[in-house]
Each structure stands twice: as structure tokens, then as C-alpha cells.
Amino acid sequence: MKGKINGKYEINIRAAKTMRLIAVLFMVITVTLSGCVEDEKNNTTEEEYTYNIANVESIDILTLESFPVQINVIAEGYLPDGCTEIDDIKTEKEGNNFNITITTKRPKDAICTQAIESFRETIPLEVQGLSAGNYTVNVNGVNGSFKLAVDNILEETPDSTPAGKKVITESGNGKNITLENEETFYLKLQENPTTGYEWELNLSQGLILVSDKYEPPESEKEERPLVGAGGVHVWEIKADSEGAQKVTAVYRRSWENETGTEERFTLNVEVV
Fold first, then answer.
1. Using one digit for the tens of pLDDT, what is the confidence trace for 241-260?
2. Fold for the domain defined by 166-271
3. Closest CA to 263 of 138, 185, 173
4. CA–CA separation, 218 vs 224, rounded Å?
5. What are the CA-CA distances from residue 78 to residues 4, 104, 272 (Å)?
6. How distant, in Å, are the alpha carbons of 108, 112, 154, 209 from that of 131?
């Protein structure tokens, strides 16, 4: 009698273990399948966009009074609903023509507000090095034009900075440099005060301004400066404190309010 009971008990244990094993396998399969479905869902969501050409109503071409001349195109238009957004802006140059394409994207099945949304994009043109002449701009079918009165080519000026010193020019805009503490460097930016525009320089607390001067456009062979031509503003700056420092500057007329379209310069300085 006892043997029968023990045998029955062993059978029940084996059955229970088998059921637990089946349950564990079922859970593993369920989790794996749900992960695959979720991955598929995410991949599908990333691809479900509709792309179109933006509706541009007007463009305005701004010439910044610096040399070399800088040109910004201000494009204004509207988006058809609250889900549509600007996707990409591409600029291509063919001869004297600049062709700009602004595209939008929108989730395909999204339910959105139907109110029209306006947009305003500032698009800089690469005009340094261009010859004097007339140029056209086309932004999604809206046309404009501008004229370069002289060749937009920056001529090299005599170097007045000491040999061996680090010199930063317009090409350093947005870049990073490293200095040792107490080391100095020179910042040289093109400037034309005859137009009323001058650079306003700001330094973080770990940088010291050693000297500040404007060099007019003249050479030893000339008896007088070139009237109306731009020169170079030169600052000597010294590292005074270790850590992350910054140089910022804005090119503007001191009596005018800032509009956000002014030419700007930024330099990140790591002092070690």
C-alpha cells in the first residue's frame, strides 16, 4: 500500500515539473515574439512620413555690410497644419544662380490641428570669393537677386603680429583652441568703421584683453588710407584662468538695436 502511494506521489511530482517547464518555455516564447513585434513597430513608425516641398510666399535678400560681403536669404511661408515641419534646406549654385530647396515632412496618419503655421528661415549663401556681378536666388520657385559691386575676395594684409604667436581670423569662427595659462593669442577680424559697423567683443572672466587696435587699409607705398575700404581689427588676448573660456563678438552699429541677423563670431578656448 505504501509503495503505491509513493509511486503515485512521484508521478505527480514529475507532472508538476513538466507543467512548470512548459510554462517557462511559453513565457520565453511570448517575450521574444513581443520584442520582435515592438521592433517592427518602431521601424515602421520611423518610415511613415510624407515629404513635400514647402510653400514659400516671399524671400528677402540681406547684404551684411562687412568685407568680404555676406548674403543672407530670409524665406517666409506657411505649413498646412500643426504636424508638418521643415525637414531640410539644400542650396546649389549654378553659374550666377543660387537654387534653394526647402522640404517638409509630416507623419502619414497623424491627426493634427488644421490651423496654418507660418515659418521664417534664414539661409546664408556662400559668396566669399565670387566675382563682381549680378546673381539670382530661387527658393522653391520664388525669385530674387543681388549685386556684388566688387570682387568679393579678401586680400591678404601685412602681418603686424609677432612671429610665433597664435593668430585667429574669421576662419576660426565656432572652432576650439587650447592655450596654456598666461599664454596670449591674437584675434584679427575684418572691419569697416566707415559704414558704422564695428565689432563688439566680449570675453569670459578667465581671459584678459591686453591690447585693442584697428589697422586701416594702407601700405607703405600709399600716402593716405583707401577711403571707404575696410581694415582689420586686432585684439591681443591673454589666458588668465584655467578651464573652459569663450570669446564672442557681434558686428553691428552701436546705435541700432540687435535684430538677430548680425554677423557673429564665437571662439571656444580651453586653458590648461
1. 999 999 999 998 888 888 88
2. Immunoglobulin-like (2.60.40)
3. 173
4. 7
5. 86, 11, 49
6. 46, 48, 11, 37
